[in-house]
Amino acid sequence: MNFASSPSTSLTAAMVRATAKRIAHSVIVTPTIYSQALSQITGAEVFVKYENMQHTGAFKARGAAAKLTTLTDAQKAAGVIAASAGNHAQGVAFHAGRMGIPATIVMPKNTPFVKTRKTRDYGAEVVLEGETFAEAVAAAEKLTQQKGLTPVHPFNDTEIMAGQGGVGLEIMEAVPDLDVVLVPVGGGGLIAGLTVAAKDIKPRVDIIGVETELYPAMINVLKGGTRPCAGATMAEGIAVRDVGGKCVPYVRELVKDVITVTETGIERAISMFVTAAKTVAEGAGASPLSALLEYPEMFRGRKVGLVLSGGNIDSRMLSSILMRDLVRVGQVLTLNIEMPDKPGQLAVIASICAELGANVLEVSHGRFAMDLSATAARLGITIETRDQDHAREVISRIRESGFRLAIEDPTAS
To answer: How many other C-beta atoms can be found within 10 angstroms of the C-beta atom of residue 146?
Structure first.
């Protein structure tokens, strides 16, 4: 079997329901919860489908379970293979491990260690091959032929789509009167399965797909576009160049629209999920909220479901995003202050911050910069403030006290 091929069975709502019943013991019925905080921020009535609570932290576990439960005994004994650098790898490894099926996962050589480790921890054999995902796929195809393994495609497979469609069943059963559901789009397996299931329950519900603007692969196919699909993105889970040919007909016929979101918008959404919704979203999982933030007029006053498809974000990346968001809204800023090189000047600055309630996070003091007079010094001070108005108050008081300063990040001024 070619690695990219799959059975030609038509995807139907009945198939999605039958698959959901078959794998019920293998997956979690994740909650769909109204978010008061996100509703107040966006002006829509927002319900979040928390697929980040799924096994392995993402919806991909559903499709993997669906595919593996259709294998013959001979196929199970021979083993399965998948090419993935993320959630699909972990989903296949997890369910293969619990079912006693040998699993080989081919990952690009530059895959972060944490992802390879988690995949191995689930019991899979990890093969690092190629510098890109396409090269990993090519290596997987060779191994498929050499070892007689059964390929488990991440999206271009009807059984996979049917498994992912359980998300649509659950979100519509939880909130039957939703007006619109926002769904991340990579290869198209999730949105195809979800849409077939959701529209069987409520034909008038609008399904809108969300791609990162760096990888508009589905939009290109639907609209005959030629926009490039390239670049570093925080939404690597939906960063695909080629969508699933088996997924496209369902998206073309049933999905109302596919829109793109920016990297900045994804950053904001990741941070907002943490601070407002008290949950963790990876870049792909945050893309529906990003769409809600970037296109507010499309959704204001409507009852909106957000599919939070996964929460497997690198902890260092999450930390950086949260700090960048604090800088963006003026709650953390760095001031470079020029002052006379004499005793007591640092104490003056510290007193201003203390009096106005600004929290000092970091201080550096330099005397040897060549752009300074020999009688001057430069103080670098990073402070935390309540908001931009509070930051401006601190800055104004420092300047009124006779100090010259520059703001390191202009978005915080």
So the answer is: 8
How many whole angstroms separate alpha carbon 120 and alpha carbon 197? 33
Q: What pLDDT is attached to residue 1?
A: 32
**Amino acid 133: pLDDT:** 76
Residue/partner pairs of 265-271 with CB below 8 Å, 24 or more apart: 265/290, 265/291, 265/293, 265/294, 266/212, 266/233, 266/234, 266/235, 266/290, 267/234, 267/321, 267/324, 267/325, 268/293, 268/325, 268/328, 269/293, 270/234, 270/313, 270/318, 270/321, 271/321, 271/322, 271/325
Domains of the chain: 13-58+162-324 (3.40.50.1100), 61-151 (3.40.50.1100), 329-412 (3.30.70.260)
CB 27 within 8 A of CB 54: yes
Whether 401 is catalytic:
no
Asked if 287 is an active-site residue, the reply is: no
- pLDDT of 159 reads 97
From the candidates 35, 271, 290, 309, which is the catalytic residue?
Answer: 309
pLDDT of residue 9: 62
* Dihedral sign for Cα atoms in the order 300, 301, 307, 308: positive
Selecting among 49, 60, 118, 303, the annotated active-site residue is: 60
Look at residue 408 and give its three-state secondary structure. coil
Name residues of the chain where pLDDT drops below 70.
1-9, 367-371, 409-413
